[in-house]
Each structure stands twice: as C-alpha cells, then as structure tokens.
C-alpha cells in the first residue's frame, strides 16, 4: 500500500532541497534568472504550446542537472576535503552534466526563439 504521509514527508524534504538550491547556489540562481528571462521573452513573442513544452523540458533539465551537480559537490567535499584525482573526476563529470544540458538548452532556445526574433526585428 502507498504510505501517503511518507510521500508527503519526502516531498517536503525535496522542497527544502529546491529552496536551498536557489538560495545558496550561485549558478542555480543564474539559471533561475535566465529562466525568468526566457519565460518573459516567450510571452512577448507568443510561443506556441509545443514550443512552451520544449522550453519547459530544457529549463527543467538544466535545473535538475544543477541540483545533482550540487549534491555531488557537497558529497565530495565531505568525503575528501583534500585534493584527490577521483574527486576531481567526479566533480568535473558532474559539472559536465550541467554544461551538456545548458548547451542543449541554448540550441533549443536558438531554434525556438531564433526565427521569431528575426521576424520581430524585421517588423520593427
Ligand atoms: N578535493 C578536490 N580534489 C580534486 N579536485 C578538486 C577538489 N575540489 C575541487 N576540485 C577541482 O576544482 C573544480 C571546482 O571545484 P569546486 O568544488 O570549487 O566547484 P565549483 O564549480 O567552483 O562550484 P561551487 O562554486 O558551487 O563550489 C572541480 O571541478 C575539480 O576539478
């Protein structure tokens, strides 16, 4: 049987994680502000439903990658505060995850917004 109270408790811990991510992590704050900018631009340019769905997927992917990266960084700092080549590999790989999702987000943004921005400038 599903334990609803346990699920609600898990959600509240996850919510604490979301708050900590955007409150204390500089890169996550940057991605939050960037997402607000993208949503504003999307409203100005009048994105289609399908385009909003694409934007939501890539924004969520970047935020999730940032959360995993932060979690790995914190674990690494606890396990090995001193220099260790495996910690370097773990942190660099976690950061690579953020970079890959961010590059994909920029590519999707260019595809979704590029044409619309071009038309908008031509009509100015
Ligand atoms: N204990 C360590 N051992 C080996 N290399 C490390 C160690 N700590 C950090 N590094 C190297 O330094 C890089 C930056 O690590 P750091 O923990 O400062 O992350 P950051 O990207 O600056 O994030 P933040 O600013 O959120 O702390 C890592 O990607 C890794 O290459």
Automatic annotation (TrEMBL):
GO molecular function: ATP binding; ATP-dependent diacylglycerol kinase activity; metal ion binding
Binding site for substrate: 66
A biological process term (GO) from this entry: phospholipid biosynthetic process
Pfam families membership: DAGK_prokar
Catalytic-site annotation from UniProt: 66
Co-factor(s): Mg(2+)
Cofactor note as given: Mn(2+), Zn(2+), Cd(2+) and Co(2+) support activity to lesser extents.
Keyword Magnesium: yes
Main location: membrane
Group of enzyme by EC: transferase
Binding site for ATP: 13, 25, 73, 91-92
Annotated GO CC locations: plasma membrane
EC code(s) of this entry: 2.7.1.107
Cellular location(s): Cell membrane
Binding residues annotated for a divalent metal cation, in chain numbering: 25, 73
Keywords tagged on the record: ATP-binding, Cell membrane, Kinase, Lipid biosynthesis, Lipid metabolism, Magnesium, Membrane, Metal-binding, Nucleotide-binding, Phospholipid biosynthesis, Phospholipid metabolism, Transferase, Transmembrane, Transmembrane helix
Matching CDD domains: UDPK_IM_like (cd14265)
InterPro entries in UniProt: DAGK, DAGK_sf, UDPK
Chain ranges passing through the membrane: 30-47, 53-72, 93-114
Keyword Iron: no
Family according to the record: Belongs to the bacterial diacylglycerol kinase family.
Name of the protein this chain belongs to: Diacylglycerol kinase (ATP)
Organism of derivation: Runella defluvii
């Amino acid at each position: 049987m599903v334990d609803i109270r346990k699920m609600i408790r898990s959600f509240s811990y996850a919510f604490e994680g979301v708050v900590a991510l955007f409150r204390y992590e500089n890169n996550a704050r940057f991605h939050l502000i960037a997402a607000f900018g993208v949503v504003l631009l999307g409203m100005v340019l009048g994105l289609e439903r399908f385009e909003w769905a694409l934007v939501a997927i890539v924004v969520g992917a970047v935020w999730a990658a940032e959360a995993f990266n932060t979690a790995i960084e914190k674990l690494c700092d606890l396990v090995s505060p001193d220099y260790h080549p495996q910690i370097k590999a773990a942190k660099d790989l976690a950061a690579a995850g953020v970079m890959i999702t961010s590059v994909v987000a920029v590519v999707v943004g260019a595809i979704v917004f590029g044409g619309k921005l071009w038309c908008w400038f031509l009509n100015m």
